[in-house]
Design brief:
142 residues; six-stranded mixed beta sheet
């Protein structure tokens, strides 16, 4: 009886204290979500202050920022970038029509000739917040 209780306590502590798996690790799986070269094609607007989804974006941002090397890998797989890529969170947007949450990250080009920098847009399905795709784009100077 005692070993059973100890095992149950151990399993319960693993469930409670182990971090949840990253949505971003799906991009390194054998069947990753699509990664599209370009920018998110549908209309979306930044989440206004006080929007209920803003709180939920904090955990998504924490996950992305803990795996920033994946952002660099996604960009370098599509563009021949040799300069360091330092990504910064730009905004969280919502596409109400398609029920998508978009998180945009941008890495400025330290020597902008034609390219201002590179952006990565992660698209999450609402309301489940499961990762649906990523868009990678070399943002031209305007």
């Amino acid at each position: 009886m005692r070993p059973t209780i100890i095992i149950l306590l151990f399993i319960t502590s693993l469930i409670i204290f182990c971090p949840s798996s990253s949505h971003l690790t799906k991009f390194t799986s054998s069947s990753p979500p699509p990664v599209i070269t370009g920018y998110y094609p549908h209309y979306h607007s930044p989440l206004p202050a006080g929007h209920p989804l803003l709180r939920k974006t904090l955990s998504l941002r924490k996950d992305i920022e803990a795996h920033e090397s994946l952002l660099r890998e996604l960009v370098r797989h599509r563009y021949p970038v040799k300069s360091p890529l330092e990504f910064h969170f730009s905004y969280a947007g919502i596409d109400s029509l398609h029920q998508h949450l978009i998180l945009r990250y941008f890495a400025p080009n330290p020597q902008p000739d034609e390219i201002a920098g590179w952006q990565v847009q992660f698209v999450y399905q609402l309301p489940s917040l499961t990762i649906k795709s990523a868009y990678i784009w070399a943002v031209p100077l305007e």
